[in-house]
Amino acid sequence: MTNRITELFQIEYPIVQAGMVWNSGWKLASAASNSGILGLIGAGSMYPEVLREHIQKCKAATDKPFGVNVPMLYPNIQEIMDIIVEEGVKIVFTSAGNPKTWTTWLQEKGITVVHVVSSVKFALKAQEAGVDAVVAEGFEAGGHNGRDETTTLTLIPMVKEKLSIPLIAAGGIATGRAMLATMILGADAVQIGSRFVASEESSAHQNFKQLVVDSKEGDTQLTLKELAPVRLIKNKFYYDIQELYQKGPSVEQLKDLLGRARAKRGMFEGDLEEGELEIGQISGLIHDIKPVAEIVKDIIAEFEEAKKSISRM
Predict the structure, then answer these.
(1) Longest Cα–Cα distance in the chain
(2) Same structural domain for residues 184 and 291?
């Protein structure tokens, strides 16, 4: 299966394992890369030296390409980027910031740069900044999300219409059928997050993994738009937010309720009541916790079968 993305990343299948906070450590990234897709370490939940350790362990665990996802809103971003260069990482996905800030700097050091966007406007800005590819992420996605609530089904063809560089679809994709659907709409590849949360190699707490498996349609909701829109599983913390909204809260009151380390508390430490539990709408289609290799095998098998079904139609 060869196209612009498999050639860009030198991978077997056009699938990227998303670099998710508190879920995507070296075990997940290396397992993904060893399965023929692109594994990503999620730097958003790591101090710089912790990131260095994960990169080194990932290099020891795979000889295949892998990358690092870097949200650009952190104060120690320069240190993180320096470590990525020092450790010889060749692929960086940037998000939550202006792609012009780091793209040229990284590319001058031989690094392939991909930027994550949630709209046509920002996809064009990323292309203008010179990125090598774009991830267009629909409203269905877990974690932090776009404000416009544009779904993947509409976002991908609209971005494809305007973009000339490779396009990776994200948001609501966990199966081979969804992978084929987004590629028919114009994507060169897919980025998958939620399905890999419920993998044996994910660094998420077992409590959180099981909750994802148990989730049904309607169990997630986008909230906290005044801060940074985030899709959460509905738990006590989520309902506390909704109760506060009934009082017309200020941004400061919302920040006070959110506090610090909510995501770590929920996803990494397994507090299902008070933690921030980020997952996509597609969790309603995730029914088991499996090794990454099996997940990838299942997705590709379903993708190929779906292609045959389309041909028969």
Answers:
(1) 57
(2) yes
pLDDT at 312: 86
Q: Tokens in use for 66?
A: 């892998």
Examine the domain organization and report whether 185 and 302 are in the same domain.
yes
Task: State how far the Cα of 211 lies from the Cα of 216, in Å rounded to an integer.
Answer: 10
Q: Do residue 172 and residue 78 come from a single domain?
A: yes
**pLDDT given for residue 228 in this prediction:** 87
Q: Is the pTM of this model over 0.85?
A: yes
Residues 103, 34: one domain? yes
Domain with residue 134: its CATH number is 3.20.20.70
Is the C-alpha dihedral spanning 205, 210, 213, 218 positive or negative?
Answer: negative
Domain range for residue 39? 4-203+285-312
Residue with tokens 């993998």: 199
pLDDT at residue number 196? 98
Listed in sequence order, the residues at least 6 apart from 207 whose beta carbon sits closer than 8 Å to its beta carbon are 270, 271, 272
Whether residue 254 is found in the same domain as residue 194:
no
Q: Which residue has the tokens 């997705």?
A: 299
Q: What is the pLDDT of residues 27-68, one digit of tens each?
A: 999 999 999 999 999 999 899 999 999 999 999 999 999 999
Give the bridge partners for 95, in sequence order: 71
Radius of gyration of the chain from its Cα atoms, rounded to whole angstroms: 18
Three-state secondary structure of 100-145: HHCHHHHHCCCCEEEEEECCHHHHHHHHHCCCCEEEEECCCCCEEC
In residues, how long is the chain? 313
Q: Is 235 found in the same domain as 182?
A: no
What is the tally of structural domains in the chain?
2
Say which amino acid occupies 304. Answer: E
- Say yes or no: 45 and 184 in one domain: yes
**Does 210 reside within a domain?**
no
Determine contact, residues 93/117, Cβ cutoff 8 Å. Answer: no
Question: How do residues 130-146 score in pLDDT, each as one tens digit?
Answer: 999 999 999 999 988 88
How far is the C-alpha of 73 from the C-alpha of 43, rounded, in Å? 12
